[in-house]
Amino acid sequence: MKAITVNPPLNGFEYRDVDIEEKGTRIRILENGICGTDREIVNGQLSSAVPPSGYGFMALGHEAIGEVLEDSGPFRKGDIVMPVNRRGCGKCLNCLLGRPDFCETGDFIEAGIKGMHGFMRQYIRDSPEYLVLVPPDIRDIAILAQPLSDLEKSLEEILSVQGRLYWKCSDGTYGCRHALVVGTGAIGILFALLLRSRGFSVTISNVRDATGLEATIFSEAGIAFFNSSLGYAGLKPNDKFDLIVEASGSDASLIPSLLSLLKNNAVLGLFGFSRSGMANLTSIDLQNIVYKSISVVGLINGQKPHFEAAMRDLVQWKHMWPEVSRSLITREIDVNSISGMSEVMYRKMPGEIKTKIVW
Amino acid sequence: MKAITVNPPLNGFEYRDVDIEEKGTRIRILENGICGTDREIVNGQLSSAVPPSGYGFMALGHEAIGEVLEDSGPFRKGDIVMPVNRRGCGKCLNCLLGRPDFCETGDFIEAGIKGMHGFMRQYIRDSPEYLVLVPPDIRDIAILAQPLSDLEKSLEEILSVQGRLYWKCSDGTYGCRHALVVGTGAIGILFALLLRSRGFSVTISNVRDATGLEATIFSEAGIAFFNSSLGYAGLKPNDKFDLIVEASGSDASLIPSLLSLLKNNAVLGLFGFSRSGMANLTSIDLQNIVYKSISVVGLINGQKPHFEAAMRDLVQWKHMWPEVSRSLITREIDVNSISGMSEVMYRKMPGEIKTKIVW
Amino acid sequence: MKAITVNPPLNGFEYRDVDIEEKGTRIRILENGICGTDREIVNGQLSSAVPPSGYGFMALGHEAIGEVLEDSGPFRKGDIVMPVNRRGCGKCLNCLLGRPDFCETGDFIEAGIKGMHGFMRQYIRDSPEYLVLVPPDIRDIAILAQPLSDLEKSLEEILSVQGRLYWKCSDGTYGCRHALVVGTGAIGILFALLLRSRGFSVTISNVRDATGLEATIFSEAGIAFFNSSLGYAGLKPNDKFDLIVEASGSDASLIPSLLSLLKNNAVLGLFGFSRSGMANLTSIDLQNIVYKSISVVGLINGQKPHFEAAMRDLVQWKHMWPEVSRSLITREIDVNSISGMSEVMYRKMPGEIKTKIVW
Amino acid sequence: MKAITVNPPLNGFEYRDVDIEEKGTRIRILENGICGTDREIVNGQLSSAVPPSGYGFMALGHEAIGEVLEDSGPFRKGDIVMPVNRRGCGKCLNCLLGRPDFCETGDFIEAGIKGMHGFMRQYIRDSPEYLVLVPPDIRDIAILAQPLSDLEKSLEEILSVQGRLYWKCSDGTYGCRHALVVGTGAIGILFALLLRSRGFSVTISNVRDATGLEATIFSEAGIAFFNSSLGYAGLKPNDKFDLIVEASGSDASLIPSLLSLLKNNAVLGLFGFSRSGMANLTSIDLQNIVYKSISVVGLINGQKPHFEAAMRDLVQWKHMWPEVSRSLITREIDVNSISGMSEVMYRKMPGEIKTKIVW
After folding, report:
1. In a domain, B29, yes or no
2. Which of C35, C134, C9, C44 shows the shortest CA–CA distance to C84?
3. What is the per-residue pLDDT across B124-174, written as a single tens digit (0 to 9) for each?
4. Residue of C nearest to D101 (CA)
5. Whole-model pTM?
6. Domain of B212, in residue numbers
7. How far is CA C57 from the centre of its chain?
8. Looking at residue B158, which CATH number applies to its domain?
9. C94 and D291 in contact by Cβ < 8 A?
10. What ipTM was estimated for this complex?
């Protein structure tokens, strides 16, 4: 079958015939999403990328939907499904509980990233245990469920962390809580939407003005936008936050200014991977973490329950925020288009939110 | 009555007669503990210290036990009690729930520190709501319950934060979890003891060898000691930690090396107040927080339930670790001893764990 | 204005002009739902029904949607909203936290039921704090959000209770958990749908065959139906349940047989109000509760966060289960139709799921 | 070696030589406790009692302390330890998490009760994983840790169940919560002490007056006693409870009156095994469970973390309540005393709290 393959740590990718031995339910891949991690691998920048043992290549791709080709377990022929991308180490308790997002050994494998072939290929075989049903209503945007699953998990984790105190409001909701999402990539926008749909007041920022498409999205979903090119000093003096999610992978030097924007008992969630710079925290910054009971939490990887929640949310958003939903997939590329694929696989295009590959 | 008073931001302290208007149950103070915060105030270094409104001075002291002078609420004349030191803002939900440790407004008051007279005086009056009964069995070491209450709260918060994953071991205990406590002051030692008594495997470190007294304590309680004067590289290569508690207030530059000692899903709890230096985190440090699902949590202030837990633990420790318990109070000073008081109020003595003032 | 009024403990209802003094945002009522509690009041059978003080009547109705007539707080003129029906006692902690569903004093008030005028009238005034936005997409079925809010709270409570053990499955979801919902009224069907949408395997039962409409609903949503007219012995021998929700208000004598269907660690949730019969539990029944770590939980009343969740779920269900959504409102009645109103206010019609009154 | 053996379902017991093949650390048994379950087996009344496969007898006993005979794992020769009595099924998630108290399959085994030899014998071998260290300070009362472990788990479970609402008081403690413990056997008294030590206000009841010994215990620990021989009508009209623990195994007919004593949001915990009677609940009783958000929870079996907690509490109680601790072991019997053993193994003696067998 055809596949998009990589050979880390080498850069580049190929579209070629491959032989992969697998067991499980046969699935014909329909679409893949491309994300920053894919591009890091293609650019030879992700040192943790490792092909599966016994192979001299790795099929890329951890965002996919496909069509089930045979009745199997709870699935019927013709069902559209999404495979979960991280699989457990088989040893630690969290992996036994279906939660390799909290793998203790680090020996988990991850499709298209570490020790497991990815989903950018014509067919995969997989166990029903790792497949999540796609509601037909969101066939067009379901590819977003994989990145969204990471955020469902992240928000679940944040709310769990905040169980350390009483963090709801006097009406029992989160309506009084103000969140800042840093970054307007796919992750930033999806995280902002998720927080809005859970009732948070949300501001999203980038170091430039919002594009027209972004403005449409933020307006419909009731999200405030802030241009932070001159820093956050321009926010109203009392505009501090109960939650900040770093979703931009900005230079690490951003962190101290984000810490200074936090209210008492707030959370700084780190989702983006800073690739440059230093976060130079003064002793006063550290004292403030203590005095203000602040928590900083690393956020990574959703699992099956989070994929299920992502599907539910996408259905809801599609109809609650129709403009938003129409705006999130900014480009579709035919996998056979050599020039198109070369264009999208190496770097994010201006205005891109999510690019998907169609088989 | 006589009181130890301060007048922040001025440095120094006085032992003098004062008039303080209060309501509530009459209590004769028996003992006070001295901690680093008291000394910062006496040295004019705690910028957040503020006398109660309407007074040109503030009685110092937030660690005290006293004798109830009249039947009142659940207390009988002659009972020994400890007053809780932080009081709520009366506005936010967490303060209404008796948890000003998570005050949202920052308008809480704190005995001997901020907006409320402290307990270093002959008498106080207080509401039974803020008093905690001292079991007679621990009359001698009960003064430790105030600092310990902060740690009871801290551990409760850490366990709550770790509710984000499955953090117990395959036997349902915390026996497989390895904690590092940085610092062998009163806080460091009490935190290490608390973690031991909850079943954690515990290492404690200082930048020098353990004193003889410390060695006795660590040996009886089964705590490992590590001299980190040359950094932590000397730890066994795989000796990483599920929990690190910074309890030394070391130079901030210590933080990056602590982060590098954390296992997947670990917690770095910040209790000590760094007064100097910079924590310069690289982008790799930040990435590790994400990849390893690490949480950094500011830890501060225990409330009434934590004082109650501290009393229970002190009773238990006294008899489980008799040497430990005999070793924790390293000096008693008569409040009338001018030279003695001058000696203990300004700085920590070599070998000091807890110094108490006796009325 | 016109209103449907009652005068408990008298039976009957009137459609008449009333004067009600209220403060807050003006809202024009569009629709009301009718539920079993309304009918109990109209039939003079709800002894706890009490008019608001100072009035010789009570406007009925606790299920309503209306149009906001003026900009107010987060709402704009023209928004469709649903008012929350229970309001706190103003005294206990749970009411201060926006959770009068867990009122400790019992002094809460409840629209159209106890001490507060209901929503079956042309206009209400209310504080934005108690209003929940209705997404335009579900304008047609939004009246279901009030009963559904009770179930959102119930499921949240059940999952919280089950936090006593590890109750998820080896894939991190609830997919291995089997629930039985007893009763196919509006509550039973909505509860079954809610459990399905959260991934549970669900069986629903009634003491007759499913109607054609019910069969359509259960088929689309993947819910099994069981006719329990001859008891539950006909279930497969090993078909026991992790969760049973009594949503029928059946004769109390049903309870022992439900208990016998529970697996280890299971929950029996009581939502329906039994009006007759006795639940005669043997000592063996009680022993089984102990040996099997069973929990029985009374389930009542959702609050604002649950109304918000209900709105999200209704949007999702409408598009995931379009047949289901079209089937749930079985009758609309014009409030001016004297004969129609007489027909629907006193008793449930055969085949009724939810009847709504249109203003 | 010598052992006390049974052969269920036959009644009677023998003191005789046995050969038992086991692996693990060698332990010399010092003491056993006797409880109601042991006596049921000896009287041939526990239908669930089953010898280990391949043996025509079963060593009795699930309460034991012993001396470690060789260094092993965390234990040193000479350490006193208590073995955990229930062991997992090896299949379900809760057993893999070290929590066979919530075994899903029911295939757990239990020392001296079901499929595993008990501890009433000269020696056992066991894995350090199932051994809990006994602090030397409580060598005399440590046998109580096994029954207490069940209660530690029970209280943990009750507090977890009550996480469904805000159940603490306005000072953050449980001081405003009023508990009733039914029964003054070992379990009832230990449960009452545990609740007291956690700050609850506690009433304990029996259908007779308190014995002198009981009166001493209740007085020192601040527990109120109520003689319920004429029912609970004699309690003050407003004396309702937030928590009732049935620890008497009374006739099931007691249950309806206990339910009527519960406040809103209360818990009825069932620990004792009713052996007779019927709990005849009216539909009004069931309605009250719903209206008042009551939870009924079956409480059984503590695991290793609960044994550890029990050890800590026993140390604390010994010194906080010295009279109590001296009163709990009401009889010691030499295992070689034929007449003595016959007396204690079949029935509870008047005034007995805990009888222990000494080897």
Report:
1. yes
2. C134
3. 999 999 999 999 999 999 999 999 999 999 999 999 999 999 999 999 999
4. C293
5. 0.98
6. 150-298
7. 25
8. 3.40.50.720
9. no
10. 0.97
